[in-house]
């Protein structure tokens, strides 16, 4: 939504005011004109503006004619030179035959050869001059064509709004409001993790690290290609979607049917295993340019200072808000997903407004550590943020299956996961290690953990999602390993695939 407003020193009576430079792609039906004077009519005029190329077209036509003319001259000179060369060849043959017969005059032959040779040199010089002139005119024609193409590219569609007013003499306020496409914004963030230092005694250089904090900066990336340059103007950001309308989405028929089980299906239970992602509610799609996830409610954000946004389609970042919150750094490793130890913080939204879903630039240790994602976060809500990996820790992850033989009983098949970690750095780390065990949804299938012999001590869990955790303290140069083992007990009529 674009708002143009101003005050006009009106001379009095009836007249027309023209607002130049409005966007040529404005939605005509959205134009709203308000004034403290009487408005007679309004109109939107569009026209093409650009450089006049009439003289360039005439020069190009003249150069094309000259190119054709000099090309013909060069072709005629080439034909004459070829004929003279043929005549010289014929004369040489005749001289050879006459000399063999003892006839002819050598002086006459020399004069004829010199005349034909001079004629050939003259035709060759004329051909070279015509070719050189042809090349010069072709180069000039190429420059003129490039100038015409550049001038044609500068042609653009312009628009203006004309308003008929009726008012007495004096200042008249006038405002135009209209919708435009191709003007977008998206939220972006910048998170800086840094230590909190406290001075020790009178010496300012003696400081002690007392904790960490995150400085969170909310920004907005704004770009537009409306054909209307925006100078330094105040900007208000909104997540409202005026072009969406109030049309209900179409409902598709979802047909369900039932059938009786077969005899084989009644005797056996087919079990499948799968990995399930826990989805979160969101209004955006994963593919393509994402929309603004505002939690289902239109949000309005104010930009602190005016911003100039030309109609180039290039993004411009502007500060929206900023806040600092104390955090506690933790290290977490999930070997099933990545063989890295990540540095993570849990922080509370320090801003008075929600954080809309968007990318966040992560900065720590004096440099950028990557780009992450922030989901929709309400004011005061906690959310995690990862600041990259701790490269001083090496991780190895192994999955095994082993059989325990039991006398006169069915053998047990134990499935295990083992993680080995080595700290190659020079500081101790407390790492949260997370592994996952299967979760059964059937009472005929049970997952049994061996906590005493095959699993490492200090294990927490599993929780309702099957995750087990250890808090591992790694000293410099220390190597530790953690293991979890489980087996699956099932009824005799259950068929379980080998998923390990």
Tell me what you see in this structure.
The protein is extended and about 130 Å long. The strands form eight sheets. The protein has a five-stranded mixed beta sheet with strand order 14-8-7-17-18, with no helix packed on it. A five-stranded mixed beta sheet has the order 19-16-15-22-24, with no helix packed on it. Strands 20-21-25-23 form a four-stranded antiparallel beta sheet, with no helix packed on it. It contains three helices and 26 strands. α1 (54-101) runs antiparallel to α2. It folds into four domains: 2-50 and 155-178, no CATH class; 54-153; 183-240 and 292-389, no CATH class; 393-495, Immunoglobulin-like (Sandwich). The longest helix has 48 residues, at 54-101. The protein has helices spanning 54-101, 106-153, 263-267; strands at residues 2-10, 13-22, 32-35, 38-49, 156-167, 170-178, 183-200, 203-224, 230-233, 236-238, 269-270, 300-302, 307-309, 316-327, 329-333, 342-348, 358-364, 367-374, 382-389, 393-404, 412-423, 429-436, 445-449, 467-474, 479-490, 494-495. The protein is of the alpha+beta class.
What is the overall pLDDT average? Answer: 85
- Helix proportion range: 10-25%
The number of domains: 4
Structural class: alpha+beta
User: Roughly how many Å apart are the termini?
Assistant: 57 Å
Number of helices: 3
Oligomer: single chain
* Largest beta sheet: strand ordering: 14-8-7-17-18
Write the layout of secondary structure elements.
Elements (H helix, E strand, L loop, with lengths): L1 E9 L2 E10 L9 E4 L2 E12 L4 H48 L4 H48 L2 E12 L2 E9 L4 E18 L2 E22 L5 E4 L2 E3 L24 H5 L1 E2 L29 E3 L4 E3 L6 E12 L1 E5 L8 E7 L9 E7 L2 E8 L7 E8 L3 E12 L7 E12 L5 E8 L8 E5 L17 E8 L4 E12 L3 E2 L5
Parallel strand pairs: 7-17, 11-26, 15-22
Antiparallel strand pairs: 1-6, 2-5, 3-6, 4-5, 7-8, 8-14, 9-13, 10-12, 15-16, 16-19, 17-18, 20-21, 21-25, 22-24, 23-25
Helix pairs in contact: 1-2
